[in-house]
Amino acid sequence: MAGKSRTLQEAQAVAEQAKLDLTDLNSSVQSLYLSQDMGDHEVRLVELDSSMVKHLEAGNSLMVRGDKSDMAVVCTDDSTFELKSTQTTNSLLLLPDCRAPEQLVGGDGCLLHKEVYCISHVYLELKQCRPKLKKLQTLLQENVFTGPEYESDEKHTGKKYTTTDLLSLIQASEKELLQELRKLHAVHYDGYWRLVDFDYMGNVLQYIMDTVDCQSWSYDQIPTDKLLSMEDNVYPRVVLQHCLDCYGDRKIMELDGGSEEVHVLSEDKVCRYFAEYLLKGVGKFNLAEFLQTWKESVPVGMTTDLEQLEGVALIDKKSHPQVISHFPVTGLPEDAPDRFNRLFRTREKWTLEDITPYIRDLCERKQTVGSLLTKFARASTLPDGTKVYNSRVPIK
Which DSSP state fits 362? Predict the structure, then answer.
């Protein structure tokens, strides 16, 4: 290594010339030299916060995900981070064996020669972000599940995806991916994740409710194992279990002979399904007629409520008569500017109550719906005192 002739005394002399008090310095000195192999090494520097450092020190890993056309993201087991390149005017030196002050030898002091293998003015930084999940729905729509009897049908030859496949294609952590799959009511069937046909799922739900009525069970206490184990079931066990989980909640009942798992059908989720069934594909529906038809379609004992349609349907109160239409949040763009453009193209002015279900999922960490509206919308007050929001920018 060229230039390693510097002595400890020479290093101390340089410090004195810089008017540094040697008593304030560690007696051991690290002398830096540029390596003869200096060059553009395949090394990238990443800035990590303390929580991420602890994550790695615990033996966990970070995964970089994204296609060539995507902006790369980094994922832990439960979070997603944007990976951005940042320039700095400071010189960042890479030394394989640089020691921290507490690692330096005390005593009379010594001189340690350290080689600098790389100098960089660029580093990568991580910023937690929302997972990019819109692609998931597109992939799963390639082969929608409509029942085992149709699996060999020519309409069901599209690609199917395992968890590993999806993790390699979707920019999200495993936890976020699984949460979105549950949100989409995707079933894990025969090792693959599949979207379930809307009408087929409705048939399964109706079969479960008919069975409950036939067996004189209660919607609030469906014995899970008894239902799944019935010999004359016309649907696969995994599909019945999936439907129970989508439209009900698991509960453990304590009985005299022990405990038993039951499912409690969710009134809101069941009523929501029947509302979507009525609204899908019909355009605008007279609100009064819809409310009556909806009320008559749900199981006896369940009560419909417009709050159950949050993020599913829009009511046009200015129309005479008032009308309702299917407008699911799952069909909106994932990118915030595009989302707001679509919303304001659909309706010029929104109340806070109406728009909140359609933008709540856009909120980043510690962000609120109010801060989103401040950024993308302009508030105004109607003559009747109602506060509304319209677009800040021209609608495309």
Answer: G
Enter the tokens of residue 345. Answer: 């193209």
| DSSP H helical ranges for the chain | 8-17, 50-57, 134-140, 163-169, 174-183, 198-214, 224-228, 237-247, 267-279, 287-297, 336-346, 352-359, 369-376
**Polymer length in residues for the chain:** 396
pLDDT tens figures, 203-217: 999 999 999 999 999
Hey, is 390 helix, strand or coil?
Answer: strand
Specify the pTM.
0.83
The pLDDT of residue 32 is 83
* C-alpha span between 245 and 239 (Å, rounded): 10
The pLDDT tens digits of the residues spanning 50-61 come to: 888 998 999 998
In three-state form (DSSP H/G/I as H, E/B as E, the rest C), the secondary structure along 21-76 is CHHHCCCCEEEEEECCCCCCCCCCCEECCHHHHHHHHCCCCCEEECCCCCCCEEEC
- Three-state DSSP class for 220? coil
Helix or strand (DSSP H, E) at 125? strand 118-129
Is residue 232 within 8 Å of residue 245, measured between CB atoms? no
End-to-end alpha-carbon separation of the chain, Å? 63
Q: Which is nearest to 222 in space by CA: 261, 173, 270, 275?
A: 261
Using the 8-state DSSP alphabet, how is residue 236 labeled?
-
Q: Which two tokens stand for residue 6?
A: 């510097």
Q: What's the rounded Cα separation, in Å, for the pair 148 and 80?
A: 35
Query: Is 339 in contact with 298 (CB distance < 8 Å)?
Result: no
